[in-house]
Amino acid sequence: MRGKTKYLLVALMLVLFLSACMRSNKSVQFYRLNASAAMVDIIQEPELTNQALIGLGSIRIPDYLNRPQMVIAISDNQYQLSEEHRWAERLDENISLVLTKLLSSQLGSNRILRYPWSLRQAVDYQVSIDIIEFHIDALGQSRLIAQWLIKRKDQSIFSRRFNYQVYASTTDYEIMVSAQSACLTKLGQDIAVTLKQLIKEEAGN
């Protein structure tokens, strides 16, 4: 009986060892968000927007997203972290870079600063974003929920809740990232449209 038990333990250890080796041999895929080119319409009015210095940030993400692994919901209350599919950089930094490039393109302006900027640089408008949800849900939908506001001279002048979703996939991570990029692009477009209107109104006063 002891010999049989010993054999079973050795066999179990071998299975666990082989399983660990198989996991370690899986290649890790890295992803970055980008502006969805198919959604971007240039709305630039450089004669207006080039005069304004715009500060983007801070951008806050919830703790459950503050990690290198991509997050997939498998139910309303349960999430799965993928060790084989990861962000190539900090998610909040990636979001900030995408929105900076998008706002610059949409507004036709290079006068956009990413948070934090020097205290000597007094921005005309500051855009703060609090991301509430940004993951793939159990149905394969990419959803971005965020609260964003615009300040002018440290006074809040505009605030809006953003809720947008795009069908993605439950298995294909490249499609998932493309869908999340589309959500982020839509957020950037909404912010750009509002900034354009505020700057135009300010110039008319």
Question: Can you walk through the features of this model?
Answer:
There is one protein chain. It is built from 4 helices and 8 strands, in the order αβαβββαββββα. The chain is of the alpha/beta class and 205 residues long. The protein has one domain: ABC-type transport auxiliary lipoprotein component (Rossmann fold), CATH 3.40.50.10610. It has a 5-stranded mixed β-sheet with strand order 5-2-6-7-8, covered by helices on one side. A 3-stranded mixed β-sheet has the order 1-4-3, covered by helices on one side. It is elongated. The mean pLDDT is 87.
List the main descriptive attributes of the protein structure presented here:
alpha/beta; elongated; 205 residues; single chain; three-stranded mixed β-sheet; five-stranded mixed β-sheet; 4 helices; Rossmann fold
Task: Describe what is shown at a glance.
The chain is an alpha/beta fold and 205 residues long. It has four helices and eight strands; from the N terminus they run αβαβββαββββα. Helix content is 37%, strand content 31%.
